[in-house]
Amino acid sequence: MSKRTPLIAGNWKMNKTATEGVELVKAISAAVGIDPNVNVVLCPPFTALSAVGAAIEGSHLALGAQNLHDKTNGAFTGEISASMLRDLHVTHVIIGHSERRSIFGEDDAFVNRKVHAALGATLRPILCVGELLAEREANQTMEVVRRQVEKGLEGVPAAKADHVIIAYEPVWAIGTGKTATPAMAQEVHAFIRKLLAQQFGAESAARILILYGGSMKPDNADALLAEQDIDGGLIGGASLEAKSFVELVRSASKSVAG
Ligand code: PEP
Fold first, then answer.
1. Which structural domain range is residue 209 located in?
2. What is the pLDDT of residues 32-45, one digit of tens each?
3. Residue of minimum CA distance from atom 4 in ligand 1
4. Could you tell me the distance, in angstroms and rounded to a whole number, from the CA of residue 75 to the centre of ligand 1?
5. Is-contact 28 242, C-beta < 8 A?
6. Residue 235 pairs with which residues in a beta bridge?
């Protein structure tokens, strides 16, 4: 059991109109209420941020974005800056999701610039790392995760460590229904915490949230969240319906409540 307050973050990806999003968060908010044992962040598409933000005002839910650009403004058609997100009361932003890396060609250097842009605007980056199936099969998991964590956080000072959140998402488990076993996930989470300790010191590393992502569902969440270094989840598919998402929030709450 972790001493850190767990976080459940919903990554809606390219799903939900603003209207649908408002309906979903109202149902989630009504069911979750105020729960001091768990934090909850919802990451709708950019087009729903404003409406969802208004709908969750005064609730226990926080607002996250799925991406941002590293520049503050200018000729970057179709992109969104950190200050634009702050203006909509966004507090968290997913960075380096495997879909951004693989479909949109984002490399570690770009991911790192985005992390700095987020931190510079007091947004909390949720830095996603994780290996491909071929990399796991070639025993390269730790090497890949080390590179993504070290390069993704390059230049981040210890003073900002508390704002950083990591999501370990084995790419072969995302949206596939295949989940890492709790032991497999814990092994990587513990390794990530060691890397964080090298950069920020053991005390800071002990406070940093490391989420698991990859087909986390109500039927496997309890076992994953019981692991010492798994501090919550980044949830794709199961975040699109209130029932499954709320069950995950309750699992996380229970994991600290005992
Ligand atoms: C994700 O996209 O971050 C994710 C974990 O998706 P899923 O829960 O659907 O595997």
1. 7-12+23-233+251-257
2. 999 999 999 999 99
3. 236
4. 31
5. yes
6. 10
